[in-house]
Please model this.
Amino acid sequence: YADNPFDLLMISIFRLVMSAQASWRSSLPFWGPEAYDGMLEVAHALQWKKTLQETEDSSMGVIEKLVGEGGKKKFRELLKTDKFGTEINAWITALFFPLMVGKCEVESRTSADVPNIPQGESWNCAVKIEKCRWLERSGCVGMCVGLCKRPMQRMFGGVLGMPRSMEPNMEDLSCNMVFGKE
Model:
């Protein structure tokens, strides 16, 4: 994955917030080819000497600071678990999330996958991550589960009211995110 200037800006923002949460800073540069690795070093610091629950809580602290109360309130007001809400979440994720996870694409799901979808319909409410950059570069299942899967499911389902299932495949490093699915 080749980071563009927007990616590097977003990585820097994530990294600054993560550094404050971890009370630790990486010595790697904030800009350029090592910026992502610097963010991963800080992510490792978020889980040093912590249980899985404490790691998840640290990640929730980062997400809370990035989203803010106003962002959470607007999200809950505007996006419901209907076709529009789940599909717009999938499209936004596929557009802005590659800087964290690499190439991804929107996929459709039916009522067999997501009970909220009416019988006979399909919604474009899933995102397939081809090979997760985060998991590949970190080489750490604990970072996938503790800093991504669990806190993101908790934030979307418990805080924002939009259930989101994350289904990582540790063998091929792919992942499926399904909005509207518990």
